[in-house]
Amino acid sequence: MRTRRDFIKLTAGGLALTGIGSGTGARAEQGLYVPPEEGPHELTFMQWPNSRAVYRDKWWLADVQATIANIANTIAAFEPVVMLADKRQHRAARKLLSDQVELWDIPTEDLWCRDSGPLTAFRGTERVLSHVQFNGWGGKQNDRNDARVAERVADALGFDVVPSGVIGEYGGVEHDGHGLLLAHESSWVNSNRNPGQSRQQIEASLLAAYGAERMIWAEGVYDQDITDYHIDSLARFTGAGRVLANMPIQIDPDDPFHLAAQDTLAALRRAGLSVDVIPEPIQRRVQSFDFVASYANYYVCNGAVVMAQFGDVDTDQEARQAMARHYPGREIVALNVDALGEIGGGIHCATQQLPAA
Question: Residues 349, 352, 353, 354: which is the catalytic one?
């Protein structure tokens, strides 16, 4: 089965810091505004993985489906969850999903709702789809259905679709809901997504899409995983001026992801942000080289934070304590989502919030 890190190369590339952009997109021409992810939700969208072209091993697919169902059932204890799936998949999915999870007939291939699902923005008091077109992470994976998920959800909700003019994934950009964006160039300023567009042009489009004012860029890592190093596996905004990130305890100078992460966090600190760093797990259940053990890839829903635990007692507890510091008053729920780490993602990658009206 193809994993999201099947594209890893074993040589480190040059990873220069590119610094902070000077945005001009506050509320932009279309007047859009995407609220903070930790704001109140009407519900959470998720996608049902089912493509045998992606998951050639039926046992691996079953493991991933069980993991997605566990995440959905956990979130459903705090807010409604809508699982997007072809109606032909509903009977099988229902066997794993609680009655609190609603199934919609919207066909999918894979589970990555953060990337291909709908980003809801406000245009005044009206909710609309702020649409960044998904293309399978630069054409690396079949996206016949996933490329249409966001627009089909918008149609089901009766939302207008406001095109952003850029191609990419929402997991590739962090927003704080207070005017600031963060991204790796490798996920956006890339010929596999936005050929012919400059960083300045892409930045202006993203600022407009989110209703933000400025943007912090770092170079990231090109062509060594399927996402070209999504930011949400490294660093997340937890409020205005605050970032929660994870980093390996020891930096491997031959690992391009380690070097890029150092550069990104340095850019955040130079921008005057408060950066709280959690160590990545060492004694984890899965030790494979390409396993993604990201505490930063958590999801904030109404009343709770749903995070991963990896079997390292010390770092799992340290991550739980960090979540409690950054999200006081919310229940912290830790899940075994190793099946997602083995294919290069986590809980945040699998979810997409619908902000409350």
Answer: 349
